[in-house]
Amino acid sequence: MLMRTDPFRELDRFAQQMLGSATPGTWSKPTAMPMDAYREGDEFVVCFDLPGVTPDAIELDVERNVLTVKAERRPLPADVQMQVSERPLGVYSRQLFLGDTLDADHIAAGYEAGVLTLRIPIAEQAKPRRIEITGTGDRQEIQA
């Protein structure tokens, strides 16, 4: 249903573990936008952790079967005197390839407590359905 788009993700994760965490002020690819994805009934649910990002700084785009999530953690106003700055800032994005079994035209998005939740319905043609068999005898139904 969902295909990863970053073939080097595991290599990046391994390198990060071996070499330490990302440089302060930059967003490391593997941990910038952690994601969970699961099926719940007739929907596919994808949750992205986006702490410190305001809803107006999130963009969602679907082109063909590619879903792009783009977010920006913005700096504090210029009139503040920063004492410690360890939280990364900047723009980052993540792309997911949606399988043909998902209905990309009816994606619902919600944002609460720093978590972006996308609900993607399973396409009607991908759902199991009953096919009626007719013949000379009694009518029978089988699961397709």
| CATH class term | Mainly Beta
* Mean pLDDT across residues: 80
Cα-based radius of gyration, to the nearest Å? 21 Å
Low-confidence runs? 22-31
N to C succession of SSEs: EHHEEEEEEEEE
Q: Give the distance, in angstroms, between the N- and C-terminal Cα atoms.
A: 19 Å
**Overall 3D form:** elongated
Strand element count? 10
Q: Helix/strand/pairing class, anyone? A: mainly beta
InterPro entries: A-crystallin/Hsp20_dom, HSP20-like_chaperone, Small_HSP
Domain SHSP: 26-136
Organism: Amycolatopsis mongoliensis
Pfam family, one: HSP20
Q: What does the secondary structure layout of this molecule look like, with pairings?
A:
Layout: E1 2-4, H1 9-19, H2 29-32, E2 35-40, E3 43-49, E4 58-63, E5 66-73, E6 90-98, E7 108-112, E8 115-121, E9 130-133, E10 140-143
Antiparallel strand pairs: 1-6, 2-3, 3-8, 4-5, 5-6, 7-8, 9-10
Protein name: Hsp20 family protein
Family: Belongs to the small heat shock protein (HSP20) family.
InterPro entries: A-crystallin/Hsp20_dom (IPR002068), HSP20-like_chaperone (IPR008978), Small_HSP (IPR031107)
